[in-house]
């Protein structure tokens, strides 16, 4: 995995690179770069484009998946950014469902969802997190009690 994005202050170029990689199906090889972009808080457009591209990953790294979960929980992030992270998590869980190494990823996401849902959240965020649980086909009450 590499980071080809260079200076993130040149964000127009970075947006083009992310879109080109997404269209070419090469995002998996550039997850380290996506992680750096997602951690870069100085440009919401870069973060949101990266979050919209994340569902196109076929094998998300543990680090990238963990960062998506962190963004969902980060109350200092805008709601739209948090919702995009929720959507990315849901799509990635769905893509990984049925794979032999997916169980650890699912468990991590569902434990995180239970912690998020323990406290008051905006209804739209609560609904977005609850949609992760559909992948497991398990009632919300069982996950919350686990």
Secondary structure: elements and pairs:
Layout: H1 11-24, H2 31-39, H3 44-53, H4 62-73, H5 79-96, H6 102-117, H7 123-130, H8 133-136, H9 140-145
Helix pairs in contact: 1-3, 2-3, 2-4, 3-5, 4-5, 4-6, 5-7
Task: Describe the structure concisely for a colleague.
The protein has 146 residues and is mostly helical. It has 9 helices and no strands.
Structure description:
- Helix 1 runs parallel beside helix 3 (44-53), helix 2 (31-39) packs antiparallel against helix 3 (44-53) and helix 5 packs parallel to helix 7.
- The termini are far apart.
- The protein has helices spanning 11-24, 31-39, 44-53, 62-73, 79-96, 102-117, 123-130, 133-136, 140-145.
- With 146 residues, it is mainly alpha-helical.
- Helices cover 66% and strands 0% of the residues.
- It has 9 helices and no strands.
- The chain has one domain.
- The radius of gyration is 15 Å and the shape is globular.
């Amino acid at each position: 995995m590499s980071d080809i994005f260079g200076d993130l202050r040149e964000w127009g170029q970075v947006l083009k690179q992310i879109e080109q990689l997404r269209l070419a199906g090469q995002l998996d090889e550039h997850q380290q770069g996506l992680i750096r972009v997602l951690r870069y808080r100085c440009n919401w457009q870069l973060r949101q484009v990266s979050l919209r591209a994340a569902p196109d990953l076929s094998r998300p790294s543990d680090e990238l998946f963990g960062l998506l979960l962190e963004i969902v929980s980060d109350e200092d992030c805008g709601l739209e950014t948090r919702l995009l992270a929720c959507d990315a998590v849901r799509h990635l869980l769905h893509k990984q469902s049925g794979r032999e190494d997916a169980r650890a990823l699912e468990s991590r996401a569902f434990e995180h969802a239970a912690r998020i849902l323990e406290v008051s959240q905006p209804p739209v965020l609560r609904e977005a997190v609850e949609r992760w649980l559909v992948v497991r086909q398990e009632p919300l009450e069982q996950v919350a009690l686990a």
